[in-house]
Amino acid sequence: MKFALAQADITPDHPVFMHGFGARTHKSEGVHDPIRMKAALLQTDRSLLMVTIDTLGSDRSFVVDLKAALKRDFGLEPAEVMINFSHTHHSVYLTGRDESLRKGGYSMGQEQWPSSERELVYTEDEAYYDFIEATLLSMVRDCYDGLIEGELLLGCVQSDFGVSRRRPDGRGGVEWKPYYEGKIDRDLFVLKLVDAEQRVKGILYNYGCHTTAAGSANYLFSGDFAGAASNWLEAAYPDAIAMFLQGCAGEIKPMKSADGDGFKSCTMGEMEEAGVDLAKEVAELLEHGSFSPVQSTGFRSVLLDPTVYTEHTPIEEFEAIANDPAAADFYRKSALRTIEAIQDGTIKDSLPLYISIWQLADDVRIIAIEGEVSTQYALMIKRMFGNGKTLVLGYTNGVFCYIPTAQMIREGGYEATCNFFFGLSGPFVPEIEDIIIGQIAKAILGEKLENDPEIGGKSSSNGSMRLIL
Known about the structure:
Oligomer: single chain
Number of domains: 2
Helix content: 25-40%
Radius of gyration: 21 Å
């Protein structure tokens, strides 16, 4: 196997309006630590490209445009590229140039949260996209030029770094409080890339946790705990690039931010301590843990694109939020945008959802789902297909909204009810879980990871799923 890695600083060079917290009221005030974009190119009989970006996420406009550029310049198919977002809440949200695929509701150039989509101008966002595209293409070109022979190894330990924020209230619902007893995905996976002399060159570590150790009062760019962890690892392993692969973190917060019966916003020092704690767990595994080689005779990949559906919440419920003087400004303005979308017919009651699967070896795979995916999906997928060597990522190939389970939809709570922030007509229907798990099962058990010409690119009879090979 051959591999290469690259990274770049992509921190905006001027104040912009950061995404991540609805409580924000003005533009950024500087940089605590740079936000970065990193790339790992893996090559056997074909190439796979993992890209990580320290932003809240992106819409389809960004992903489709960027993957089109990678195909144009390097022949990489959409299924061969994963774009994983760290989901740091101290950065921006990305869009591309295709307005038809734009999520809307936010712009880097805004002065405050908009009440109407008509208030937004995306000139600054498009210029930033151009910068990201040019930077990534240069990085990937360097990777192809710098490919070296080496080996990929996989290790895993259990970590208590994160904690659920959905505590049952005893009445069938949930409270936004630490749920210390809650079952979450505690796997801390590390994919280690070593050269022919067994020197560590790449550290791809995967854990599912919201990058929200620091809170909304912070107006400095930062990768949050993930940035601090990677910085520590790269100092400890100066020949290596460390890449954080965000897992299924929809309802998971750092344990460091749990404070008895509630959560706190960590100081920047406490945030860095959290990152160092995670980095030391990774280093302990690297130095003393068990790793097995990923023995690949050839990579396989598939990109699924099923459609998921929402309920239709009556417009009166949004009007009540918009007219509630006690409601937070972000909630009221989101409700106003939703009302406008219902009235002009642009409200969405369905959503395409990328699901990417890489088969790295017969017993090792990465399954990555678009959006803010619940930790429960990781647990379900690993129970069904895991065998201890399956990484499940969220926040990959776009971040449009939360992806709750059927149980979460029944319980309610923030992750299940906030779809009006994102231009959706209501909560997802419970069948979202069946669609996601069913399509993954169909791809894996049906052995559709092979490049079968009878499969690639065809649509199902109802048009709800596409395979992109």
